[in-house]
Amino acid sequence: MSRFDQWAASNTGAWRDLDGAYGAQCWDLFCALCVDLMGASVSDCHTARSGKWAGWAGSLYTGFPTTDWIGRHFTRIPASQPGLKGDVILWGGDANHPCTHVAILLADVRPGASPYVLAQNAGATMNARRMWETPASLGYLRPKDRSFITGTTNKENNDMNGLACIVQLNDENGLHYFDGSRLHPLKDPDDVVALNMVAKATIGHDLPALKVGNNRAPFGTRLREAVEG
What we know:
6-stranded antiparallel beta sheet, 4-stranded mixed beta sheet, 10 strands, alpha+beta, single chain, endopeptidase fold (from Nostoc punctiforme)
């Protein structure tokens, strides 16, 4: 399993908000890829400040390179070319993405075909999910160094291939640490800080945090019953 595969697994269902603005936007997932796997800072990942789609995800393509760091680490590929696993895929202001959109390719895709992606804030949900999408209307940003995508790692993955996360069950107060098989109640907010210190040292980023269910649709209860029953 490559570092990219581990990253995609641990971010499926996550709510990444790296700039602390507007919640878990599609841009935040792109930024998380750069920060977690490519050594970027959040400021390295900015969208264009002027020109077409300034401030929107699509400007990562139309204004390429929007930062010096992006220019050094990515190559811009038009939608007429095949997309490769690990590419950043971008859409302009089309019918399905009127405000533009960015996601991460989970598999190679030929021109004009539907891509399989990890996307955040797609449709009615803000958390990251694996889904089929319409073909790229702009194109791709391809990492120049693809070793984290194509290489494998022998590092032990103690989080059940990325299932470890911080969970809020339904509308309950308090959080739980889910280790992939059991729920562990957290008694203090500093518990989350401590867990994320360990996560950053071992898997390179904070644990995903998600809410499972609510009082009207108590899927959090179902999760508790599934892992404790």
